[in-house]
Amino acid sequence: MTRARTLPLLFLLCGSVLAWAVFGESPGRAAVILLVFLLLAAAHSPLVFPRSIGAEEARRLSALDGWPIVFWRPGCKYCLRLRVRLGRDARRLHWVDIWRDPAGAAAVRAVNDGDETVPTVFVAGRPHVNPEPAWVRSQLLPSA
Description:
Layout lengths: L1 H22 L3 H17 L11 H11 L3 E4 L4 H10 L7 E4 L4 H10 L8 E4 L2 E4 L3 H6 L6
Parallel strand pairs: 1-2
Antiparallel strand pairs: 1-3, 3-4
Helix pairs in contact: 1-2
């Protein structure tokens, strides 16, 4: 849990320090710096992603509804890229944070030669490492 919040907190801390350093010279510039770092912190926060569930629950739900499973971790730029490009369709996948779920991390290591390479997307039980967002969208079943 702490690792997931480390990068966003670092962005907030660095942004605050930089904004404070330039505040005396230019309050407007300080506000812009703080805003940029706030946006970076938000983008790397686990809050940007749909609610994470455990790997076992994701497998069970995927078997019922056919939705793909995405194994991800906070701070991963490729995971963020996938999430942003999927837009609202991201809610039609099961998301497993490998830093919160040891079984999820083990599943990713099992298909990536021991590495925790994310995003790893399981579609119909088959793993796909860092797939293109358009491909992932094409794998989604039509809405009922």
